[in-house]
Structures are given as C-alpha cells and as structure tokens.
Fold:
Amino acid sequence: MLIIAKHAAGKVLKKDNLQIASEAKLAKKMDPRTIDATSGMFYYDNYFQGFKTVEKILNSLTDEEFYAYSASDGGFEFKEAVLNWVFDSYLSELRATTHIQVLATPGGTGAIFSSLFNSLDPEETVLFPNLYWAPYLGIAINLGFKTKTYPLFSDKSFNITGFKEAAEELIQKQGKLVTIINDPCNNPSGYSLSETELREIIVFLNNSGVPCTLIYDIAYLDFAAEDQLRFRKNFKILSEAGSNVLISIAFSASKTFSVYGQRLGAQIIMSKNEESASEFYNASNFTARNTWSNVNKGLINLLIKINKDQELKKQILDELAFVKGIIKERAQIFLKEADSVNLSTYPYKSGFFVSIPVANRDAVLDALIKEEKIYLIPGTDSIRLAFCSVPATELKGLAERIKKVIDQVLI
Ligand SMILES: Cc1ncc(COP(=O)(O)O)c(C=O)c1O
Structure:
C-alpha cells in the first residue's frame, strides 16, 4: 500500500552538499587537523563572522521592520533596492531597452525554483552544463522535469559548440529551450564567461526561432572582480536578447551579504516583450505567495536601508572588497602550488570554488578522508574545493596532498 504520493515516493536527499559540510564540521571538531573545504560560506581563518554593517543595520530596525510579514514580491522599495544593487549604474540604460520585473525569493534557490517551475511543463527538459550546482538537478526532479547536460569546457574555455548542439537537440524535440547558466564565478569551477562567450549564447537564443528562457544564476556576482561594475556589464549583453527570449536572473543575498541562513534572494525578469515579462512576473508572484508566502522582512529592510544610504553602501562594499582579497590570496596559494605539482584544475577565474577533474571521484573522496582527513564535495567526474572556507595556512601544501591521493587511487 503506497501512502506517499507517487511523485514523492523514493525521493531521498543523498550526498547533499549541506549534509557533507556538516559531517566535515563534526570531523574538524573532533580533530582540528581536518581540512574542511566543503562549505559554500565565507569563513575567516576557521571562524565565521557576519558583516559589521549588516549587523549594525539589522540591529537598528524597529520590531515591525524586522518581524512583520513582507509583501509576497518584497514591495516597491525592495524591488528598487535590488535593481540598484544588481544593475548599479546600468539600471537606467537597461530600463530604456528592456522590460524589467522583480520579486523577492528565499535565496537564489527560491529564484531558481520559481524560474524553473514557471518555464517548463512536466516531462519537459532543462539544459545545464555537466558541472553544476546540485540543486538544479534536485529542483528539476522534484518538479517532474527532465535534465540534459553538456560538457562545460572545451579545453580552457566555455564549450559553446557543445552548448549549441545540446540546445539544438532540445529545440528540435520540444520546440522551446530552458537553460541555466551560473556565471560569473561558476560553482563549482570558478570560471566566468567572457563577454564574447555570453554574447554568443544570446545571439544563439535570438536566432533559435523558438521561445527561450535563460535562467542566469548570479549567486557569486559580487565576488567576480575587484571592479564591481566589470561583470555587471553582462546585463547589457543580456538586454540584447530578442523578444523570443526571457531572462530570469537569480540573485542571492546569502552570498553577497554573508547572510546564508537568513534566506533572501530575488528573481529579476527581463524581456523585450512586455507581456512576457509581466506574465512571468505574475506567475512567479503567484508561486511565491502559494509556496513560501513571503520572505525575511529584516533582510528586505537591510536592502532598503543600503539603497537609501550611500555611506552604508560604501561600508558594505568595503567589507566585500576585504573578503574578496582574502579569497583571492587563498586561490593564488593553492593554484600556484597545484601548478607546481601538476594537479590539474578546471579554469578558475575567481570566486568561492575550484574543481579538480578526477576519474574515480568517490574512491578519491573516500581516500582523501581516510588518508589525509580532507573533506571535499563531489561533482561530475570531479571534486570541488572551497577557497571561501579554508584559511591560507591550511591551503599551503594541500595541492600536493590531494595530488598524492589521486595518484594512489589511480594505481
Ligand atoms: C550556484 C549557486 N546558485 C544559487 C545558490 C543559492 O544560494 P541561496 O539560496 O543561499 O541564495 C547557490 C548556493 O550555494 C549556488 O552555489
């Protein structure tokens, strides 16, 4: 007798990043020599601390600003705050060339869920690269969608040919295309698309002759470059999308403001076609109200306060710059050593993670734990190391230790 719904039967959360990270944390507590390179949160040297400016703003909120319900889409002031943060000085230019809608979501995860839920029907297929953030697959499975992947890299750059071939196949089969790209600072590789690569994707979608949705996941936008505007220029490229294309951007406040468990993000909808943008917004807002209802009021007000006060914004940007500097230094240490011991990695540009291609992933991960007490995250034929959570001192010598274990497993 089946009590559970047919669609829910057999679903189990296995090898989940958050679960592996909590196992690694426990191991580190028992033995401080453990290397925990699992967590997608920024840690100073083995301790977590929120941004001082965030703390100051949250502590200044009135009870109502902190505890009340928020509007299901976050409300007008929040929407303006998100658009100003994400698009920055490009906002007015973008508004002049494309229709923009926005709503609050519980993290970038909520924005990806809503984008997928509202762009596909059951049994239809979403396309993303073979190196991907695991919940893309989980959300698709949970919603009854199929998935298709293509190799993210061709040599050291984005595999545009592989993307086009896979997309073309889907277009022929289902007469539409829904695809997810996590950029810049792709999780798990640390790669960022060049302007040419991103433009080539947009041109392909424009010429596809079918309805396309590009879910552009910008979880790590604020960690991509010292110059905050450098990768925001990408939104101008996205605004070149034609009226057959809808762009749904998933913004994560978790990463930008170091407020991971507090759950705030935003879904920003862009289209040349006003009706498509409004329709997608309406459906997404319906999804929001009838799935999670509304999101963290305190964080909604955090963004509103930052938007209204340039001094607060500057303070946040300074804190972000400091964090970016630490991550960059950690990455340099590891990558330089990886190079000198011939440990190959996928092409890293910036951000929280780097990935190492390995043939026998599970055996390597087990051996890393058993022999070296090193905890990493599994990916497709690869293992992911988080620069965001490992101190520089622990990164020294790590490439050699990992290389040794990989070589041993290969024998
Ligand atoms: C690629 C990617 N997208 C989206 C998210 C969403 O994060 P959150 O829901 O905490 O904003 C994450 C978090 O790890 C991520 O790595």
The two ends are 48 Å apart (CA to CA). The pocket of pyridoxal-5'-phosphate is lined by residues 40, 107-109, 133, 182, 187, 217, 219, 252, 254, 260, 265 (CB under 6 Å).
